[in-house]
Amino acid sequence: MKVLAPASADMPPAQSHSLLAQGLWRASMVALALMPIGMAIAHRSSPAFVSLAALFALGAVMAEGSLGPFAARMRSALASPTGMAATAFIVWSLVSIAWSPFKGLSMSAFGEFVLPVVAVFVLGLTLPGRMSRGAFWLLVGACVLACVTMLIELKTGLALRRSLGMRWNSFIFNRPILTLLCLTPAVVAWLLRHVRYGWIASLAFAALVFTAMAHSESGASILGFAAGTATFLFALAAPCLGTRLAVIAFVLLTAAAPFLGTIADRVIPQSVHQTLANDHSRDRVDIWLSFGEVIRQQPVLGTGFGISPRMRDAAVADRIPSEDETLLGVGHPHNALIQIWVELGGIGALLALSVILLTLRVVARQERLVAAASLTLLAAATAVAMVGHGAWQGWWAASLGAAVVWILAARRTKLGKQS
After folding, report:
1. Which residues, at least 6 apart from 143, have a Cβ–Cβ distance to it below 8 Å?
2. Where are the beta strands (DSSP E) in 271-357?
3. Which residues are listed as membrane-spanning (predicted)?
4. 231 falls within a domain
5. Half-sphere exposure in the Cβ direction for 197 (13 Å, CA)
6. Is 379 inside a domain boundary?
7. Is 124 a member of any domain?
8. How many Å apart are CA 196 and CA 415, to the nearest integer?
9. For the CA atoms of the chain, what is the radius of gyration?
10. Neighbour tally for 124: CB within 10 Å
């Protein structure tokens, strides 16, 4: 990257602003591209990277004097069917705080979720059309460095972190591993589309990411990688059918979420739970059963945004059978759709489903490779969200959003093939 010299006194203002804008655009790309290695060092840092990238992008827009066109694009995006559905979901999330028993907790969770969403929205409107080949190679390098760093750390028992007095629990790499999972479809799509013999580079990159996953404690990442790989291959072969199947799958998952614990309790044999004992599969089913009871108590409006960490202290817990009440204290349902039902009710679940279905409609209009990468991200993220962390964690929203921005950039054709 070039270092910009200070504008001289006799430099025309337009040229000075142009140089400033170019520097800010590069800074935005660098901030977004370095997110994987940042997450490997500080495992909740992705919101900081997307926010910094968004601030640089807004600064570049102002330096160019193009706030008017940016505002017009923003209004157009919000007025689209997908934009209106997403806005309705966020507004309903905010409204639900009115009946939350823990309003401070709800406001904190709302801020943690919405801030990276807003930052990603800004980046999605500004950065993809300007993304350079160098920025993509920097992203690839950051991902590779993150994988190698984590592998060395895990092989050495996190000796470096111990020596520096840092937190050295191996599970702290689960979040950066899941961030790499999110970014992989975009990297693979770009390598296949813009790099000579990109399929070799794609296989090598995916193999390295999977190796890091296999050495981590994130069983959810392995599940997501498997779901994403199957989806990518299927979507490349039959993109229209893949999109239709995704629509059916999301409708069924959303409708079944309140009953998922009961279904899993009856369908999954004990032998499977014994095999997956290290992944706590039986515990997850019990947690789903407990939070399913909460849904049955307040199925329409939900309990209020982001209160799952204190669900056991809420009044609704008093109406839950004692054997299920205990597991309401685990922090969250370990299933994003169940959490949406619990906290935002059937209305929130319907709005979330609307956002997903409208997104799939947009995906269906993309060219085959971009559509396959988009469906892969959806499949991998959904697989993780069905068994993993809380739905509103800022690092997850930032990682998913960054992946979307990179996919939007990867669909550009003018980058050309590498000679």
Report:
1. 36, 180, 183, 184, 187, 205, 209
2. none
3. 23-42, 48-72, 84-102, 108-127, 134-152, 172-192, 197-214, 220-238, 245-264, 336-357, 369-388, 394-410
4. yes
5. 4
6. yes
7. yes
8. 12
9. 22
10. 19
* Tens-binned pLDDT, residue by residue, of the chain (419 aa): 333 333 434 445 555 568 899 999 999 999 999 999 999 998 889 999 999 999 999 999 999 999 999 999 999 999 999 999 999 999 999 999 999 999 999 999 999 999 999 999 999 999 999 999 999 999 999 999 999 999 999 888 777 777 766 666 667 889 999 999 999 999 999 999 999 888 999 999 999 999 999 998 888 899 999 999 999 999 999 989 999 999 999 999 999 999 988 887 788 767 665 566 565 667 778 888 889 889 999 999 999 999 999 998 888 888 877 666 666 877 778 899 999 999 999 999 999 999 999 999 999 999 999 999 999 999 999 999 998 778 899 999 999 999 999 999 998 754 444 43
78 within domain boundaries: yes
**Residue whose tokens read 């993309």:** 366
Beta-carbon count within 10 A of 179 CB: 29
Residues 301, 294: Cα–Cα separation, whole Å? 12
Domains in the chain, number = 1
Whose tokens are 């950051």? That residue is 142
